[in-house]
Design a protein that fits this description.
The complex is a heterodimer of chains A (about 325) and B (about 425). Chain A is an all-alpha fold. Chain A has helices at about 1-10, 15-25, 35-70, 75-80, 90-95, 100-130, 135-145, 145-150, 150-160, 170-175, 195-220, 220-230, 235-265, 265-270, 285-295, 300-329. Helices cover about 75% and strands about 0% of the residues of chain A. Classes of the chains: A mainly alpha (about 325), B alpha/beta (about 425).
Chain lengths: ~325, ~425
């Protein structure tokens, strides 16, 4: 916030120089009806206007509304009567002391860390792999995008079908090859279900990670590797001292965006297990959804999603800080 | 590749300081105008949808799929023609219906005729969004008790179901013949029959125990027939009912996947011969008609002991007249619904959609046209409405019930523990 007061007192050097340039240029010409600074301000606003309006309407309003809703007793009746009594923190208290919150929070953490670790490592592996040139690399690389192209609800329906304990293709394969004797209850065992949904979510997230990381790898100059190989660096050394440091800004982007995307995953779990069995795959986003749209307790639903927003915001701040450091370097 | 965002944090800061503190009003006004213009347009757009031409009634329902969409559409058109009005009908997906209703409620654009799933009626009626049928003069006599229970809020009737449904036990006639098993009528017989029918890639029974209201709905006939009650779900009879389902899964008579199956998947298992019996509703009948070599019959869901009554849950969609403030249209809507609820209309829809007419007196006539619906017709007469006792609080109890079912069936808890833990959630 301190930056907003700064301009009136001491404009930084670069900026004032630019301004001087502008006034010097306007000195010689016929003066327009509006003074140059006013005109410029108008133009600035004209350019900014649509963006600000869009942000305020589609991001600001829902966000503020959601925050307020978290403090209200917001039910079905509210939609018709407009009455939503202010209840202070009681929605938060109800949610946090509820029996599900601990499970959901723990599952959210496991789900997020598991998904991100899997997506990132596999994505990085694939990105490095596709860095090499080999026949059909382009075709294979575009095939890699497939999970991204399939609507999530379709993907989860197909996975649910593949993972069925008795009739699912995966268990059939495992049983026919003699690896297991009886079907593994991928989605119907509370001990396994969270692991399974993480696996499916990793599959969904690989393309995003691989594509962005591959893009980052393209930006690393080939000469560095040539120089390193002349110096006798091994593959690992090249990765450790060239690829990784050069890729770091992209890595931070991928990881932070990944965390934010994973925190809000909803459709995958709804499609696969609906939060079950026995709440084994209940995460904060599914809890928020169920509170709002199946039990119609919009106040508590908003409270849960506000906590998710804070979590996501935390990572967004980390992202911005990492970014700034990357730029400074 | 460099990310374009990377330079952005520094960007705006450099540009801002150059400005002198200009006149604040013009800037604010400008921004306000920019914000207001699209908003005003948006609001105007919303408002326009509300009032269609006079003589055109707006209808909202969730019959988005064929052939139901056409059957309902035809019945509605017939009723509208009798009254002399036109209908503008919108069908949304079942899961999106309540959200649509809430949107319309908050923007004052509710339709003139609205369909709701029966457990939602009391919640919506509680918001004062609906008109009572008594005031509108829509006849409400002759309906099954369960329908009236579901549609009554605060002593007034706010909706009616022209046809209703429930669930029962479907069985594969040939599978039972081969195993020498009679269709079960008691829990003990059900355990034995299911065990005897299990084997060779087939389970004795399939049912739905998913983590949603569908799972609750399928548990209810066992729960209620045991004598348990949703006002106190942690009870011994309830634990016995849940114990039955737990045993069926534990001894392999039912697949452990039941905790992930919806009712459609249950039907798929049955049709594919991977389950000899299933708990399901008559809406699956059209889909099973074309299955070659499948011969099935339907009996009531078994009861704890011989002589007990099988209590079925009442299913079906109810039709209501929202309070739109336009009394002319409200009374036209009432006339259309009166025609839509006529005996002839109920019989036609019932026969086409394999649902039972809401008026109990039509049962005999109906069975002459649809003899295969006998079990369901008998059950519906005494079927219990989910919201009969708890009204708008039903969703909480329903959530607790499917949670208990999931806990018990995945062996996280004994039936009694599962119910106790679920009760705590309430």
């Amino acid at each position: 916030m301190s930056t907003t007061t700064a301009p009136t007192t001491a404009p930084p050097l670069g900026a004032s120089a630019a301004d001087d340039g502008a006034s010097r240029r306007s000195a010689g010409v016929v003066r327009p009806r509006l003074s140059m600074p006013t005109r410029q301000r108008l133009i600035t606003l004209l350019f900014l206007g649509p963006a600000i309006a869009y942000m305020a309407l589609f991001f600001g309003y829902p966000l503020v509304k959601n925050i307020i809703m978290g403090f209200q007793d917001y039910t079905i009746s509210t939609f018709f009567t407009g009455e939503a009594p202010w209840v202070g923190w009681s929605n938060y208290v109800a949610v946090i002391t509820g029996p599900l919150f601990g499970t959901a929070l723990m599952n959210t953490i496991i789900f997020t860390i598991g998904s991100i670790a899997g997506q990132f490592l596999l994505g990085l592996g694939l990105a490095l792999f596709f860095r090499r040139r080999f026949p059909l690399a382009g075709v294979l690389r575009s095939l890699l995008l497939l999970p991204w192209l399939i609507p999530l609800i379709v993907a989860s329906a197909v996975w649910k079908w593949l993972l069925d304990t008795e009739t699912g293709a995966l268990n059939r394969l495992l049983m026919n090859t003699g690896i297991v004797d009886s079907g593994i209850p991928w989605l119907s065992s509370p001990d396994l279900a969270l692991f399974t949904v993480i696996m499916v979510n990793i599959w969904i997230g690989i393309p995003f990670n691989a594509v962005i990381l591959h893009g980052g790898l393209q930006g690393i100059p080939e000469e560095l590797y040539e120089a390193a190989s002349i110096d006798g660096a091994s593959r690992w050394h090249a990765f450790r001292h060239i690829t990784w440091p050069m890729l770091r800004p992209v890595v931070s982007v991928v990881l932070v965006l990944g965390v934010v995307y994973t925190l809000k995953v909803l459709d995958v779990i709804l499609g696969l297990t609906g939060g079950g069995p026995a709440n084994a795959t209940q995460i904060l986003s599914t809890q928020a959804y169920q509170l709002s749209f199946t039990t119609f307790d919009f106040g508590q639903g908003a409270a849960v999603s506000n906590m998710l927003i804070v979590l996501a915001l935390l990572f967004a701040v980390i992202y911005l800080r990492l970014n700034r450091r990357a730029v400074d370097e | 590749m460099t990310m374009p965002q990377m330079s952005s944090p520094a960007g705006p800061r450099r540009a801002a300081p150059g400005r002198e503190p200009g006149p604040p009003i013009s800037r604010r006004a400008f921004t306000a105008a920019g914000l207001a213009a699209p908003l005003a347009g948006l609001l105007a757009g919303c408002g326009r949808g509300a009032d269609a031409a006079p003589g055109v009634l707006r209808v909202l329902d969730s019959y988005g799929n064929e052939p139901d969409s056409t059957f309902i559409g035809d019945a509605l058109t017939k009723a509208a023609d009798a009254v002399g009005v036109e209908l503008e009908r919108v069908s949304v997906d079942g899961s999106a219906l309540i959200q649509k209703v809430l949107q319309q409620g908050s923007s004052g654009t509710l339709p003139d005729i609205l369909m709701l799933d029966n457990p939602n009626l009391q919640q919506i009626a509680a918001t004062t969004a609906l008109r009572p049928f008594g005031e509108l003069g829509i006849p409400t006599d002759g309906y099954a008790e369960g329908i009236l229970d579901a549609c009554t809020y605060d002593g007034q009737i706010y909706g009616l179901a022209p046809t209703v449904n429930t669930i029962a036990l479907f069985y594969d006639v040939r599978a039972l013949d081969e195993a020498g098993v009679e269709p079960p009528t008691t829990w003990e017989e059900l355990r034995e029959a299911a065990a005897a029918l299990t084997g060779d890639g087939r389970h004795g029974i399939a049912f739905c125990a998913s983590a949603d209201y569908e799972g609750t709905w399928q548990f209810l006939p066992f729960f209620w027939s045991s004598g348990a009650d949703e006002t106190a779900i942690d009870s011994r009879p309830a634990a016995e009912a849940l114990g039955l389902l737990q045993d069926l899964v534990a001894d392999g008579s039912a697949s452990p996947s039941v905790v992930n199956w919806g009712q459609v998947e249950v039907k798929d298992q049955f049709v594919a011969g991977r389950a000899a019996m299933m708990v399901n509703g008559p809406w699956q009948i059209p889909g099973m008609a074309d299955v070659e070599g499948l011969e099935y019959d339907v009996v009531e869901i078994p009861v704890p002991a011989a002589g007990a009554t099988s209590v079925a849950p009442l299913g079906g969609e109810v039709w209501t007249v929202p309070a739109t403030g336009d009394s002319t249209k409200e009374s036209l809507a009432a006339e259309v619904l009166t025609a839509f609820f006529s005996d002839e209309s109920q019989l036609a829809m019932g026969a086409e959609r394999y649902t039972v007419p809401g008026r109990t007196a039509l049962a005999e006539q109906y069975l002459r046209r649809r003899p295969e619906m006998e079990t369901f017709t008998e059950l519906v007469g005494d079927a219990r409405a989910r919201t009969a006792q708890l009204g708008a609080d039903w969703p909480d109890a329903a959530t607790a019930l499917y949670t208990a079912v999931q806990l018990a069936l995945t062996r996280q808890a004994s039936p009694a523990e599962a119910l106790a833990r679920a009760e705590e959630q309430l």
